[in-house]
Amino acid sequence: MVSFQTAEYLEKGKNNTYPELKVVAVGADRFIGGHDFDVVITSILIKKFKELNGDKIKTPVEENANAMSKFALEAVKVKESMVKTEQIRIHVSRSSRSIARC
Fold it and tell me: Which long-range contacts (CB under 8 A, 24 or more apart) does 46-52 make?
């Protein structure tokens, strides 16, 4: 992975700006992809949901197919939004509150 930036250097008494590439990481798993990120983001969302609603959850979220599909869909939205911005606010809709009552 490489990052790109411009850097200023003093050359012969004059400031010059040059493009600069910086190696951030080496090596990669060519088989890791979008679904892998979806799974990680889904697990983060579920963990946060449990932290916020732990005492209201009657059935484990992972055993509720409806809840899992909602979290998976939200994870895809989060991933796609992260392409456009560095930070994203996630809002769990009212219908997701019913998950806690299952």
Answer: 46/71, 49/92, 49/96, 49/99
pLDDT recorded at residue 100:
46
User: What are the structural domain ranges in the chain?
Assistant: 31-101
Residue 93 token pair: 């809709």
pLDDT tens-digit profile of 73-99? 988 888 888 777 766 666 665 444 445
34-66 burial by CB neighbour count: b if 16+ within 10 A, else e?
A: eeeebeebbeebbeebeeebeeebeeebeebee
Write down the pTM of the prediction: 0.58
